[in-house]
Amino acid sequence: MTAGAGGTGSGTPGGPGTPGASGTSAASAASAASAASVISGTGYASCHHGEILQGVFLDGRGRRCAALVTLPLTGLGTRAEAVLRPGTPPGSHSVDPPDRTKALRAATLALRECRARRPQVAFGGVELRLSGDVPLGLGMGSSSSDVIAAVRAVADACGLRLPSRTVARIAVRAERASDPLMLDGRPLLFAQREGRVLEVLGDALPPAVVVGCALGAGRPVDTLSLPAPACGDDDVRAYERLRSLLRRAVAEGDTRLLGHVSTESARRAQRVLRHPEFDRLTRVAERTGAVGVQIAHSGSVAGLLFDPAATDLAARLRRCAAALDRDGIPVTRTFTTRTPTESTEPRTPRTPFTSFTTSEESRHGRAHRRRDRTARPDTPGRKAHLSAL
Q1: HSE-up of 205 (CA within 13 Å, CB side)?
Q2: What is the pLDDT, as a whole number, of residue 202?
């Protein structure tokens, strides 16, 4: 939490006895008081690379519930700065870029939450500034990243770190459905429309190397226009079976089983968002020795999963990239499932295939980190920063 500094000098024109001194001094004092009352905070949230599994499942009470398991991705995210100005009229809030209305809604909800927790603090309007490099409309959680970073920035300005469950509740209220980016990188079955965890599947996804790519030439997808999937009893049973298989894959570190679950979930998702390149994607996976494919169930980002233990891994990755290029599917990035994915801004990259951290900081993330790197600013019409496009 940072407070602005203010003060008045001595021995300057306009001292006692000088015409107009009282008015000038009063104005200076008011300006200094206003500057001193300004407080600010920062927050960061990473994104993901689509889903490993998404569908309708049964919760602990046997009730049907839409839920998903995301594939974490570090290195891209949203940085938010919240400036609070006590004394300004309540509701005088703003956001830059101005089209990030979900993030602004989340910031106002977070401010309300902080008021309830710290009623002795004087609150006013909030000025929210966002920057980052998460591509829009590709199914990588850009909205959730904006929203969670905004909540953390407001909480940081108020001298608080809100619990993950509170951040999840605010995120769902702000954008109707949220990805679990406020949590750590462990594989979680997360009810995106309710903001709650249905199951912690284990400590880490099985090790896999992911060759990321963009379907549909990386064109954004309007997720709100997608039809609601029809889901009968057979569908729920199928998703519950995939859930059970994914639980086993995580427990046994079975990369091949992970690929099977991800491919079947992606195949079922074609009923809602059909990708013309999907069959080509699966054929490339078969020809190059990938264990499966994964997609964003509400976007155009996708990936091919490889077993890092393969003796000819480098050759498989080269063949995969070449085959995708021949099929007109641009490769975007290569990463692993085992890179630590903290909820805070990334620092020095760590060695791949290390285990996930389960510390308190990793589970909840710090809202403010003095060592945050400066993210490059975005324009209101943020474009997809995909190297291949």
Answers
A1: 34
A2: 94
